[in-house]
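Blinded run. Sample ID left blank on purpose so nobody reads anything into the name before looking at the predicted structure. Input follows.
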Amino acid sequence: MSMAKDIGIDLGTASVLVYVKGKGIVLNEPSVVAMDKITGKLLKVGTEAQAMLGRTPGNIVAIRPLREGVISDYDMTERMLREFIHKVAGFSFIKPRVMICVPSGISEVEERAVIDAGIQAGARKVYLIEEPVAAAIGAGIDITKPDGHMVVDIGGGTADIAVISLGGVVESASIKIAGDQLNESVVKYMRRKHNLLVGERTAEEMKKRIGCVFPKEEDEAMDVKGRCLLTGLPKVVSVTSSEMMDAFEEPVERIMEAIHSVLERTPPELVADISTNGIIMTGGGSLVSGFDKLVSARTGINTVIAEDAISCVALGTGKALDSLNNMQDGTMNLSRRKQMN
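Blinded prediction complete.
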């Protein structure tokens, strides 16, 4: 392997996607690390570690090293990145250039941490790109034109809302309400309404199968297993999608408010563009049934979910990598202050 391939990484709270130049997305695994507490040894990373969440014996812990879009456990993030980069790049004398995606509301300290983790994990150079920009590129928008587009990217830990024109973010909001918070609200709801204790993974499953944020034509139901808080014994409860709508109400309202406030701050010319171009939703959280309908109903702007909602950000990161070579200026100015190395 003579030439190290450029790598794009969507370093998310819930999952990590890796894009390799010329190959596309080669890896999509949960951002979970399992380690032995006693020896400090890394046991499993990604999918295999995820299966251990909430089920580990005393000496093993499964950790999610990123919380709310930023690094909460630096050491583990770096080790996880190293494993993933190694998995896709193998051994090479030339280290790869890596572009990593970050939420738009990230502070400089948090930025620095991502760059350092990338370098420590074996990158020759680390570039950062803001999530909504990567999502827009990945959704196939030509962001270099003087034409306003709105992207709502709902991930695991953060929802990023941005208005993009001329290759940059004009107005944005990044809130720490996203997929994880939707799961939490389901756990709370089940406890309050059914006296049932369910785990995070069960909540996730409910969200995917029957979750909705806009009334469905037909109510769907699902049997949920958990522990009854009154008896302490296992119990099965049937839950409907309209109940899920109640459960999601609070976090969903917060996301809607953020979308609203970004629109309020956007220059009128761009608002006119957005009402023509529509709103594009990306990220796993946007796949909750009816999200596009809800946004359309509330804003009066036609809203669509990007074709490859989950991989949009990673694809965009990859495409932005391609443009590193042929245009070091222009679009890449958003990564300029972040190229410190």
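Unblinding after everyone has recorded impressions. The chain has a mean pLDDT of 87.
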